[in-house]
Amino acid sequence: MAARAGVSRATASRVLRGASNVSDQARTAVLSAAEDISYAPNRAARSLVTGRSDSVAFLVAESEDRLFSDPFFLGMLRAAQTVIAEAGLQLVFTVASSPAEHRRFLHYAAGGHVDGVLVLSLHGRDQLPQELESHAVPTVLSGRPLSGGPLHFVDSDNAGGARMATEHLLDTGRRAIATITGPLDMCAGQDRLAGYRTALAAAGRPYDAGLVAHGQFSIVSGQQAMAELLASRPELDAVFAASDLTAIGAMRAIEAAGRRVFDDVAVVGFDDIGDAELAHPALTTIRQPITEMGRTMAIRLLQRIAGEPAPLGTVLPVELVRRLTA
Which of 179, 192, 77, 60 is nearest to 123 (CA)? Predict the structure, then answer.
């Protein structure tokens, strides 16, 4: 190909690596020659020279059932994939929900098969990010880490959004406001419960543990938790659900109990997935910037892989989207 372009092999190599120290004329000639012969770089050979795999991993620490039932993960994946592809890298998607799967992935990543890792949905004090970093594998998390240590992460303002949702219910005159939490071994679950409590305290309302039920960011858990709340506290007239799927489940339980969403029990969710607007009635919710979160995670990881400075933590703003349930 170098001969076809009329340049040296070294110049052709620099062009194909994306180096800047070549003339526009040489770059045009090499790229034209590459197109003529349908040239594709040998990634395996190049990795031996650069020590890079030109791949990054997108790891979700959840079961496949949870992964494929929640649109949040697909939105994050699509956004991250766009950024990674634009950078000319491959995205390797993997699910690791058990300690054994974590160990296998750590062995894979530490073996040089990926240049960095995007990690979503960590639970508790999982040390996988620290272990990856100890093997010099740059890692960026979705969500504030609970496991301690200086880890890079991108998150939305979960506490602020939950406070906003609860304040909205208070402002509309609701008196007995319940909440259905997310998993409390995750930062999002903890922060959204904290935001609910902050809004009540600011309004001079006491925190009532009897108005708090625990969910798993799923329709089934939301429906079950709401049924229990209605049975134990029939006077409740509003609920802040820590995810839209949870809120949709809660709406089903409200209707099954013979009560009306909004008229009898107002509902606010969190996420603004597509199903929120399509729900009947359309769900009032807190919109977190899912696409921007995925993009920012990927950008931060690319910065780290390139050895560029990157903020340790990035928290993106959220907003209240008013529809028909509250």
Answer: 60
Q: Which helix (H) or strand (E) holds 155?
A: strand 152-156
Residue 169 above 90 pLDDT? Answer: yes
| 191 in Cβ contact with 161 (< 8 Å) | no
- Summarised one tens digit per residue, pLDDT across range 73-98 is 999 999 999 999 999 999 999 999 88
pLDDT single digits (tens) 116-160? 999 998 888 889 999 999 999 999 999 999 887 789 999 999 999
Maximum C-alpha span of the chain: 82
Residue type, 43: R
C-alpha 41/C-alpha 102 separation (Å) is 32
Give the pair of three-digit tokens for residue 307: 């050895």
Strand order in the sheet with 55-60: 90-95, 55-60, 116-120, 139-142, 152-156, 313-316
